[in-house]
Each structure stands twice: as C-alpha cells, then as structure tokens.
Amino acid sequence: MPIRDRALAHASVRTIAAAALVTVSGAASAANLGFLNNTPITYMKQRDLQALNDAAQIALNTKQDGESLDWDNKGAGNTVPINGTVTPENSFEENGVKCRKITLVANAKGQTQTWTPVACKAGDGKWKLKKQ
C-alpha cells in the first residue's frame, strides 16, 4: 500500500474512534488520492492523531460553541511540526444524545486542512463521529 494511502487509512481509523477527521471508504481508498499529497493529513502519524484526538475530546467537553482550543504535536516524536485548532460549533440533541458540529484545523509545512464532522457523546462518555 503506498505511503499516502496507508497514512490516510490510518488517520481515518483514529478519527472515527476519536471524533476527529476523515472517514475513508473502500471506494475512496481505491481511488487516486494524489490531491492529498503534501497536506497535513499525509504528515500525521499515530501520536499526532492521538494529540488531535485528545484536543478534540477536551474541546468537546469544555468549550462553548465558537470557542477554539489550540493543539499541536509537540512531544509526539514527529519531525514535522503540526498544529491547529479544534472548535465546537453547533450543539444539539438527536434522539436524546448530545451532538456537536466541530471544526478541526491542521497546519503543516505551509498547508492547512479543515474538517467539519459531527460528533456525538457515546454512552461511555467519549465523543465519536456521527456516521453520515
């Protein structure tokens, strides 16, 4: 599996589990993903994704709508500095479950990526991406 496809698939697993970034379907994995070259997601490693996950959990639990939390990958062991923000946007209830739209921003090597998934609070207290 090419490095860029492996990195994207790896990122999507962490993102789904942590209310974070991108969901990649089998069709997307098989597609030409060259447009993702040199974007922040291609530089992110497991520990970077964990830092983003941790920031997302904190922001979803503590920040008001529109209030941002800064995050970075310092201490994650990646030679590429990555930073960004996590901003909960719209809080709402759906079928008795608390959900929030969240804006995730990552910056690396002069490039910026933004994702806007919806996360809902699971029974275990963790925020997880809502399936679209």
Automatic annotation (TrEMBL):
Ranges that cross the membrane: none
Domain of life: Bacteria
Full protein name: Surface antigen domain-containing protein
Record keyword Signal present: yes
Stretches with biased composition (Polar residues): 80-90
Record keywords, A-Z: Signal
Organism expressing this protein natively: Caballeronia calidae
Region of interest (Disordered), ranges: 66-91
Pfam families named in the record: 17kDa_Anti_2
Keyword set includes Signal: yes
Domain Surface antigen: 28-130
Signal peptide: 1-30
